[in-house]
């Protein structure tokens, strides 16, 4: 038998944003990310999950 297995990796990378407050920093970060000015390229894997089939539960592989 063959099964479809999906593995998903979550990565993260910290960026410094110049802003007046946290709300503005979030807004600027979202805008820069959507404009491809912030790109996660040297990120660290923070989570790995696995799913068997299309509607099976996601299993934490950490």
Give a brief description:
With 62 residues, the chain is of the alpha+beta class. It is built from one helix and three strands, in the order βαββ. The chain has a three-stranded antiparallel sheet, with no helix packed on it.
Walk me through the structure.
By secondary structure, the chain is an alpha+beta fold. It has one domain. The chain contains one helix and three strands; from the N terminus they run βαββ. Strands 1-2-3 form a three-stranded antiparallel β-sheet, with no helix packed on it. β2 and β3 form a beta hairpin.
Helices and strands in order, then pairings?
Layout: E1 5-12, H1 22-34, E2 44-52, E3 59-60
Which characteristics define this entry?
62 residues; alpha+beta; 1 helix
> Structural class per helix/strand content?
alpha+beta
Helical content stands at 10-25%
The whole-number mean of residue pLDDT values reads 96
Largest sheet: 3 strands, antiparallel
Overall body shape: elongated
Unreliable parts: none
Distance between the termini: 27 Å
* Largest sheet strand order: 1-2-3
Order of helices and strands: EHEE
């Amino acid at each position: 038998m063959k099964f479809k297995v999906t593995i998903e990796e979550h990565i993260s990378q910290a960026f410094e944003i110049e802003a007046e407050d946290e709300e503005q920093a979030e807004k600027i970060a979202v805008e820069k990310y959507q404009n491809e000015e912030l790109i996660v390229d040297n990120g660290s894997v923070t989570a790995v999950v696995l799913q068997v089939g299309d509607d099976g539960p996601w299993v934490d592989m950490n």
